[in-house]
Every structure is written in structure tokens, then in C-alpha cells.
């Protein structure tokens, strides 16, 4: 087996949130290092008919200090990977690539006062990692995580995450009132209705959070969702004067560059 071949990890837990969404945790090899917000290739052992395993990029949802690695996934009935992955049970084997990479990392942003994390659907995953990392709160005074879904039940992973986080012995106290979790829904009745792009444009988001509108001098932004959502939200950030950063050229906003199919 080559040095770049994925490692075989054991499934530790699986939690189903809706009939389209589930989260799972696997063992973490000692040599596996990553920065909160990065993604890695995930797959299932190949079947007899397959020449090689189907692997897809998945954002790591657990923080870099954790001894397990967690993921949040959609279930696609005839998806090449998720049709099988959605059926995993504790004790099963999942393949994980050896090289985590990514753009949604704190190092790709200039220092600032407020950090926005704009997410839709399973795009909340990298932020599940970052909001559990003490470094996020060391670098920013305020962290505003937004999560927009089509339906109310799809918000449940994020709501549970925040609830558990407040009880977390390591980060819970650090967070205090620094973290604001704003949820919105687009296709059902909900107190805050609408796409994140519309809430930014109308100013409702800032009103709701009690903060001034986006300002390149003090605000930093991370964006993760579908390709269209990322493109539209990034374009909107640019209208406020924010520019896209990278690991080698940190700036005011960053976008996710991995897409799970
Ligand atoms: P909508 O219900 O109006 O399509 P999806 O499951 O398609 O990724 O959508 C998840 C959430 O992201 C939905 O609330 C959806 O709103 C929203 N969304 C989809 N496309 C965009 C976009 N281009 N910009 C902002 N939000 C979007």
C-alpha cells in the first residue's frame, strides 16, 4: 500500500438528524494533523466490482484537539458514496485520506474584530470545527455563525452543536457571549426567514445581530454552502469592500473550495 493511500478508520458513532442528514465520528490516527476548518477525502472500502474506492472531500466537523474525527453529511439515495456511507454502523470501516487541506482557516484571514461564518445546509461542518477551537476566540472578539436551511428540522445539527458547546469544559467558558448563532429558514415559517444573501442585502442580519453592516476594516468572513450560495455571498462581500484571502495572502474573506457530491 502506498504512503498516500487512505488509512482505514473505525466508525465510533453515527447520529441521524433527518432522513437527509447524518453525522458520524471515526478514529483519528496519531499522525493525522489538521487545522480546524480543513477538509479531507473520505470513502468506503471498495466493493468487488470497484477498481478503486470512491472518495469525496468532506469538511472535518470536529476541532483539531479532539481524539476522534467527525463529519456531517447529506444522504443521496443513489449517490456513489453517500448511498453506502449513510448505512454505516459503529465498528464499520471508513477510509480517510492522509492529507487534510483547505481554505476556511484562520491563517487565511487578516486580524479583525468580528468573524462571520455564513453557512447553508451541510456547509456548517467546517464551522462546527472552528467554533470549538479556542484559537477562534483568541483571535476575534465576536463570532457570528449563520446557518440557513430549507426546512426547520435541518437546523437540528447546528442547534445541538451549540447547546453541547456551551456545556463544553474546554471552550464553553471561553465562549461566554462571544458566539452568536443565527438561524434562518427559506421554505417554511420561521422567526427569521430568507436566504443569507437577502438578509445581508436588506440589512436584517445586522439588525438581528445588533451590529453595524459589514466593514472591511473590522469584519472577517468565511463562507460555506452550495457553489451558487458561495459565489453569490462572496460577490456580496465584495460589494462591501472585502477581498478574498488565501493561506499565502490573508485578507478579509475566504470561501470553501471542496464540494461533496
Ligand atoms: P432556497 O430555499 O431559497 O433555495 P440547498 O439545499 O439547495 O443547498 O439550500 C440550502 C439553503 O441555501 C436553502 O435555504 C437555500 O435557499 C439557500 N440557497 C440556495 N442557493 C443560494 C444562493 N445562491 N445564495 C444564498 N442562499 C442560497
What are the segments in which pLDDT stays under 50 over at least 5 consecutive residues?
Answer: none
Proportion of residues in extended strands: 25-35%
Q: Helix/strand/pairing class, anyone?
A: alpha/beta
Rg value:
18 Å
Spatial strand arrangement across the major sheet: 4-3-6-1-2-5
Shape: globular
Span between termini:
26 Å
The number of helical elements comes to 8
**Small molecules in complex:** adenosine-2'-5'-diphosphate
Mean pLDDT: 95
Report the helical percentage.
10-25%
Note the main sheet: 6 strands, antiparallel
Secondary structure elements and their pairing?
Blueprint: E1 7-16, E2 21-27, E3 39-43, E4 55-59, E5 68-74, H1 82-85, E6 93-96, E7 114-120, H2 125-130, H3 134-139, E8 142-149, H4 156-167, H5 172-175, E9 179-185, H6 196-202, H7 204-209, E10 219-224, H8 227-239, E11 253-255
Parallel strand pairs: 7-8, 7-10, 8-9, 10-11
Antiparallel strand pairs: 1-2, 1-6, 2-5, 3-4, 3-6
Helix pairs in contact: 6-8
The structure holds adenosine-2'-5'-diphosphate.
Amino acid at each position: 500500500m502506498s504512503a498516500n493511500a487512505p488509512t482505514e478508520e473505525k466508525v465510533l458513532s453515527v447520529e441521524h438528524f433527518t432522513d437527509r442528514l447524518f453525522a458520524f465520528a471515526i478514529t483519528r490516527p496519531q499522525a493525522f494533523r489538521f487545522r480546524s476548518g480543513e477538509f479531507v477525502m473520505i470513502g468506503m472500502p471498495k466493493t468487488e466490482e470497484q477498481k478503486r474506492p470512491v472518495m469525496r472531500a468532506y469538511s472535518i466537523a470536529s476541532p483539531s484537539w479532539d481524539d476522534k474525527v467527525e463529519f456531517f453529511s447529506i444522504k443521496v439515495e443513489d449517490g456513489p458514496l453517500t448511498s453506502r456511507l449513510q448505512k454505516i454502523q459503529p465498528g464499520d470501516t471508513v477510509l480517510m485520506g492522509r492529507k487534510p487541506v483547505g481554505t476556511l482557516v484562520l491563517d487565511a484571514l487578516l486580524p479583525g474584530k468580528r468573524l462571520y461564518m455564513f453557512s447553508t445546509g451541510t456547509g456548517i461542518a467546517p464551522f462546527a470545527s472552528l467554533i470549538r477551537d479556542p484559537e477562534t476566540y483568541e483571535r476575534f472578539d465576536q463570532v457570528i455563525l449563520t446557518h440557513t436551511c430549507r426546512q426547520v428540522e435541518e437546523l437540528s445539527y447546528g442547534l445541538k452543536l451549540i447547546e453541547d458547546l456551551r456545556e463544553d469544559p474546554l471552550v464553553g467558558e471561553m465562549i461566554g457571549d462571544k458566539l452568536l448563532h443565527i438561524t434562518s429558514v427559506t421554505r417554511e415559517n420561521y422567526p427569521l426567514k430568507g436566504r443569507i444573501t437577502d438578509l445581508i442585502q436588506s440589512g436584517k442580519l445586522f439588525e438581528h445581530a445588533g451590529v453595524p453592516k459589514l466593514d472591511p476594516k473590522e469584519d472577517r468572513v468565511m463562507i460555506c454552502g452550495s457553489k451558487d450560495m458561495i459565489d453569490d455571498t462572496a460577490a456580496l462581500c465584495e460589494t462591501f469592500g472585502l477581498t478574498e484571502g488565501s493561506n499565502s495572502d490573508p485578507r478579509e474573506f475566504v470561501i470553501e473550495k471542496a464540494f461533496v457530491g
